[in-house]
Amino acid sequence: MSAFAAFASGLLFAVGLAVSGMTRPSKIIGFLDVAGAWDPSLLLVMGAALPFLFAAWRIAQRRSAPFLGGIFPGPARTGIDARLVGGAALFGVGWGLSGFCPGPAIVSAASGAVPALLLLAGMSAGMLAHGLLVKEDPCG
User: Fold this and answer.
1) CA distances (Å), 92 to each of 35, 56, 88, 99, 134, in order?
2) Tens digit of pLDDT for each residue in 30-48?
3) Could you tell me if residue 126 is inside a domain?
4) Is residue 138 part of a domain?
5) How far apart (Å, rounded) are the C-alpha atoms in residues 75 and 122?
6) What is the C-alpha to C-alpha distance for residues 28 and 17, in angstroms, rounded to an integer?
7) Rounded to whole angstroms, how far apart are CA atoms 26 and 99?
8) Do the domain assignments include residue 90?
9) pLDDT tens digits, residue range 102-121?
10) Model confidence at 52, in pLDDT bands (50, 70, 90)?
11) N-term to C-term CA, the chain
12) Cβ distance 90 to 17 under 8 Å?
């Protein structure tokens, strides 16, 4: 059942990304271009997600375990350090240059979009290099 739930959740997320336009780099670049031809429509997408997040968070707080088993993960690192700032900056630069963040890139790559495939190849190479170079638990 949990594999089906994971697939259904991923499919719903992918459809939401496609319908909202987040798989179109021009839409993302327009949203990030606050000094030029700013397109604020993605604020509606983010705002529409907040009530669902709030409801899910309230439900999760009242439960001792997830619906489909397992345990709730504990908090990750809570401090701000150079790795966090560097990673956030790298993510932001990649997002701004490509117009893709990882989720929409995966959805776009499924259609065969070459820019998304190139981004995913580069992102995968970076994750592989990080895994080979850093031998510690990412959650602290």
Assistant:
1) 17, 27, 6, 10, 22
2) 888 888 888 888 888 889 8
3) yes
4) no
5) 29
6) 12
7) 7
8) yes
9) 888 888 888 888 988 998 99
10) very high
11) 31
12) no
How big is the chain by its Cα radius of gyration, in Å?
Answer: 17
68-101 pLDDT, tens per residue?
888 888 777 778 889 889 888 988 888 888 888 8
pTM, rounded to two decimals: 0.69
Residues 120, 105 contacting (CB under 8 angstroms): yes
Concatenated DSSP letters of the chain: -HHHHHHHHHHHHHHHHHHHTTT-HHHHHHHH-TTSS--THHHHHHHHHHHHHHHHHHHHHT-SS-TTSS--------S--HHHHHHHHHHHHHHHHHS--HHHHHHHHTTT-HHHHHHHHHHHHHHHHHHHH--S-TT-
Identify the residue whose tokens are 């001792």: 64
CA distances from 124 to 28, 105, 135 (A): 21, 12, 17
Q: Which domain holds residue 46?
A: 2-133
| 3 state DSSP class of 61 | helix
Assigned domain for 139 exists: no
Quote the number of domains for the chain: 1
